[in-house]
Design brief:
single chain; alpha+beta; Umud Fragment, subunit A; 2 domains; six-stranded antiparallel sheet; 6 strands
């Protein structure tokens, strides 16, 4: 085979080795990394972004009084509401004492409207046998349950508490690094594909030249004369 044909065949063999199909572990790793990234983005949106945009408050259920719907560790997001819009069956969060940090999240079981136009609310935990001791007045109401996410409450406590100073910046840096890696990987892959296309074209051209070249007739040895 001519030298150009051998070189072309060698280049094709090399590319075949480079383009060897990726294994299951590669795709599994890509799937896991993509899933983790999506999970981080989702948790960040539920815990920080959406509540901040809506003016809502993320909280964590710490007791079992609202089981089974809101078990301990559940993230609840409470949105401010006009107390005139509260209805029986709503789950609301109220201050145990007005203007103090302690709060309770229970379900409204009764609403009392007095003759002077004021309202009070009777609340009870879904898992409790009796209603709460005291009637709740509108000034104590923090808001109404907007949405809840199981198991994320402890993460919310950490992110919005002691870990807030470094978790959020670290997560942002990690996302930027991952995005940079994906962009760089895409660019490198694109460059390699272009280079391989050029090599393929050169190899095909060399193969055609080798095929079209006239074949050389082998030199026959002359037999010595017979005496």
């Amino acid at each position: 085979m001519p030298e150009s044909g051998v070189r072309a065949q060698s280049m094709k063999d090399q590319r075949a080795k480079e383009e060897k199909p990726k294994g299951v572990l590669y795709y599994l790793g890509m799937g896991i990394s993509g899933g983790l990234l999506a999970l981080v983005i989702l948790v960040g949106a539920l815990v920080i972004v959406i509540p901040k945009i809506a003016g809502a408050i993320p909280m964590t259920v710490l007791t079992s009084s609202m089981e089974p719907g809101l078990p301990p560790g559940t993230l609840i997001v409470v949105k401010p509401i006009d107390t005139d819009e509260i209805r029986v069956g709503d789950v609301i969060t109220y201050q145990i004492e007005s203007n103090k940090p302690g709060v309770i999240t229970h379900r409204v079981t009764a609403i009392t409207n007095s003759s002077n136009g004021s309202r009070t609310f009777t609340l009870k935990g879904d898992n409790n046998d009796v209603v709460d001791d005291l009637q709740v007045i509108p000034v104590q109401v923090v808001g109404k349950l907007w949405y809840s996410v199981p198991w994320i409450g402890y993460v919310s406590n950490f992110v919005n508490g002691s870990g807030k100073s470094w978790v959020v910046p670290l997560a942002a840096i990690a996302l930027f690094i991952y995005a940079g890696y994906m962009i760089t990987s895409g660019i490198v892959t694109s460059i390699r594909k272009r280079a391989r296309s050029h090599l393929d074209a050169d190899a095909e051209a060399e193969t055609e030249v080798a095929t079209d070249a006239p074949a050389e007739e082998p030199v026959r040895k002359r037999k010595p004369p017979i005496d």
